[in-house]
Amino acid sequence: MSLEHLQNIIEKFLYRYSLSTIGVSDVVEIIIISMAVYQIITWLQLTRAWTLFKGIIVLLVFALMAAVFQLNTISWLLSNSFSVGIMAAVVIFQPELRRALEQLGRKNLFRNLIFAAEEYSGETTFMSEKTVSEIIKAVYEMSRVKTGALIVIEQMVALGEYERTGIAVDGLVSSQLLINIFEHNTPLHDGAIIIRGGRVVSATCYLPLTDSMELGKELGTRHRAAVGISEVSDSFTIVVSEETGAVSVAREGKIFRDLSRDMLEEKMEFLKKGSTSASKDVLKKWKGLLHNDNEKSEK
Fold it and tell me: For residue 200, which of 179, 170, 162, 226 has the smallest C-alpha distance?
């Protein structure tokens, strides 16, 4: 091989893998695409669509594995169902998509880009022991005087779409604040409050009602709303009955009624910051209770 021929090969290789000149238009395109992707991801995190998005990522990884290992039947099924899945997602999340387009038209994109991280930090939803104690104290103070209450504690699934149906509060959780919110004849007493981390983010929120036929007819709108929000998210919801003062908890589509103070403290143990081992034990108990309820319903 001549030196000239080797030089030509090296030049072709360097030309093929060399970076092309980046112009001003390329920089502008990168900035626009980055802003669009960031806005989409931020919007997804504030809606139930975030769970769907994570499911789509899992399916794409599965499709990639099927292509690598030449699983032709699975690849064919995935490729043919992908377009149908997109149409189904558009139909299911039509309200969220419409709301996103409305926000796109009336808000400043640059301001959103700067301050979106403040609106949703994505931090853990664990709360301090003091915050949990304040919630329990307020719940049983309201239970004693039969003040109706509906308290939704957000977990991994964001409740931004329900938060926007209420009035922004953004107040540190305290027993006095919770009692004042649900006091009779006050502007914020009707509806639910949503707690994220250690703060009350919104009050007078509207929640979806459950269609479950397993709930007793004696349960009112508060209890049905508590079960409804637990069916569409992993939230932890506390209800105080206005008629009896009884305290109930809704989680994973199930409701646990007439809880004592000790029982509520036990169920809220997994919410406390730093109590990892305790959280695992409580979650196991939750699963056991749900499993027993399912067995009873089957019988």
Answer: 170
